[in-house]
Amino acid sequence: MRTRALGNTGPTVSVLGLGLMGMSDLYGPADEAESIATVHAALDAGITLMDTGDFYGMGDNEMLLRKALAGRDRDKVVVSVKFGALRDPAGGWVGHDARPAAVKNFAAYSLRRLGTDHIDIYRPARLDPDVPIEDTVGAIAELIQAGYVRHIGLSEVGAETLRRANAVHPVADLQIEYSLLSRGIEREILPVARELGIGVTAYGVLSRGLLSGHWTPDRELGARDFRANSPRFQGDNLRRNLELVQALREIADGRSATVAQVAVAWVASRGEDIVPLVGARRRSRLTESLGAADLKLTPDDLAAIERAVPADAAAGGRYAGPQLASLDSEK
């Protein structure tokens, strides 16, 4: 598989990464054996970037990754960990904590759950409004000096926060939502990241399944699936968004590709500094996404995609109102 560097200072990783969140949380029940088999299939296909979070399944996701990496060469895998999101026993969200002491505490638990002596990329999941980003980044820098972390990442922060963080210690990459339906980073965040030499790991490249080509208007979402409260999956918004998918399908059919492959390939085409994260929970979906790595979109393809799904065409926000308002990247 082809590779890309995460910014000027980050590691070299596969052109696609694997996001593990759905294997433990937020998308409803998942099968652990199939999840581990999917990680194995990704590794065997050449995917080297594995993205997790210490709050995915309240630690279960990290332990799942530990099982999946057992017997594998750890030095050939880049493990990215998000921290700081606080959960209650019912799985609810109760804030963020990125104080320096909390950073080191979260890292200690992640190292133990992952069964590793280092985390390749460590990042706060969101900006803690009560803690200067300089303090958070400084704490991660101390973990780097101590050998527990290799690189600093950030997630869902705005351009000014990127500048402030990078002034303390070089930031390898920014993890942020980027897809045909979520292109807000193009206005300011992506240009500043490129100015500073910071890479982008793009999550939500299939817009939580909307761009998978497999979504149907009558699909029922369980209580544990956060998409049940997502504006893009509701009523007229869903119908409008699926019309965009249908327009994209016509382009995909012309390339003998799937909608998902075109959507992932589009994100990858936006620059050599962008690595799409695919959130496959099953080997069949992973196999489909892997086809995007070899799909080269022509200028005519890109123009047709732009006509079919222009910027800001999505109906509904990418998160519900209160969540969207809390994102530093949206300010």
From TrEMBL:
Annotated NADP-dependent oxidoreductase domain residues: 16-308
Cross-referenced Pfam families: Aldo_ket_red
Superkingdom of this protein's organism: Bacteria
Alphabetized Gene3D superfamilies for the sequence: NADP-dependent oxidoreductase domain
Keyword annotations: Oxidoreductase
InterPro entries documented for this protein: Aldo-Keto_reductase, NAD(P)_OxRdtase_dom_sf, NADP_OxRdtase_dom
PANTHER family: AFLATOXIN B1 ALDEHYDE REDUCTASE, ALDO-KETO REDUCTASE YAKC [NADP(+)]
Protein name, as recorded: Aldo/keto reductase
Organism, as annotated: Sphaerisporangium aureirubrum
